[in-house]
Amino acid sequence: MKKTILTGLRPTGNLHLGHYFGASQNWVNLQDDYEFYLEIADVQALTDNFDNPDKVRKNVKEITLDLLSIGLDPNKVTYFIQSQIPEIAELTVFYSNLVTVARLHRNPTVKTEVAQKKELFGTEGESITYGFLGYPVSQAADITAFDGEVIPVGEDQLPLIEQCREIVRKFNNIYGETLREPEGLLSANKRIKGLDGNDKMGKSLGNAIYLVDDEETITKKIMGAVTDPNKIKKDDPANPDVCMVYYYHKLVNNEENNNTICSECKQGARGCVACKRELITRMNEFLSEFRDRRKYYEEHPEEVDRILKEGTEKARIKSKEQLHKVKKAMKIDY
Ligand code: TRP
What is the rounded average pLDDT for all residues in the chain? Predict the structure, then answer.
């Protein structure tokens, strides 16, 4: 029997190359070999966007289109919307007794996000809600509602999987062996740098290339990418290892071309503008199959609705089974 994958995404914005190379490319590779549940985590998105329901609603569609565009085949992958699975909300309530508030504050992913919010809004008390602090508990419910065994995610998500494992162990200790401890699975690329050379590509950092970016946008962004600051003139020799243009060539261009680019750059035989032009071509080639699939689904919105509706129905069969097991173990199965 195939093992079960459960993974998800918050619908707060479109997918960029950081998401793609950091996690979702791996999902495409795994879809044949697993029973695959893919959650559009709108409830989780609302924990810190509760005052912006339009944004979340719009991005459920956008994220679904992005995921379809990269080739996550709806015949292999069960797409579903978190808010339409009430069992997840019930499990969240039960698990919330098994986690201390102090432990949630110590969760490294939560800690990073709290620090970001402090920077944006000032004091923590004003911006950190009960629901936001508790989202790792809700994520443990996401995973266990589908008996998830393998959880392929970006590296920033590992503390949330560890938190889920702790909840599972505690649950099983108290109520008897019921739930499975999931395993995280990282993709080879892990973290993708931004156009500005920042260690992380991120929406809030303004340094991302999105899968939906059109040719004009790609041109503008790549023309502005950071190159070796010591290279002043076109034929100065430079260091490709500090150049973001070379960094992205390595992601989307082939090895032979990249070897040429690297040696020409070191010899001063390659100008940055020409090198950027070539990257623009390669990036557009790389994105073209995504654009084609996206266009198809944009023209067939009723098909996208059906994928989400049928996926959610299928997902509920599993989540109902899991909730039943949990309530029985907790002796609340009236
Ligand atoms: N927290 C993930 C993100 O930030 C989304 C997510 C929700 C998730 N539930 C999940 C990931 C369960 C893996 C497993 O994008």
Answer: 95
Q: How far apart are CA 251 and CA 24, in angstroms?
A: 15
| Residue 116 pLDDT greater than 90, yes or no | no
Average pLDDT of the segment spanning 286-299: 98
Q: pLDDT for 167-176, tens place per residue?
A: 999 999 999 9
Taking the C-alpha atoms of 74, 314, 149 and 163 in order, what is their torsion angle to the nearest 10 degrees?
110
**DSSP codes of every residue in 7-36:** EEE--SS--BHHHIIIIIHHHHHHTTTSEE
User: pTM of the predicted model, to two decimals?
Assistant: 0.95
Residue with tokens 């290892």: 241
* Atom number in ligand 1 closest to CA 6: 14
87 lines ligand 1 (CB under 6 A): no
Place of tokens 């390595």: 250
Pocket of ligand 1 contains residue 137 by CB under 6 Å: no
Question: Tokens at residue 4, please?
Answer: 């079960």
Mutate to test the pocket of ligand 1, among 137, 139, 168, 322 (most ligand atoms within 8 A of CB): 139
DSSP 270-296: S-HHHHHHHHHHHHHHHHHHHHHHHHH
Q: Which atom of ligand 1 is nearest the CA belonging to 148? A: 14
Q: If you compute the radius of gyration of the chain from its CA atoms, what whole number of angstroms results?
A: 22
- What's at 120, amino acid-wise? L
Predicted local distance difference test score (pLDDT) of residue 125:
59
Question: Is residue 269 classed as helix, strand or coil in its secondary structure?
Answer: coil
Average pLDDT (212-241) is 94
User: 3-state DSSP call for residue 77?
Assistant: strand
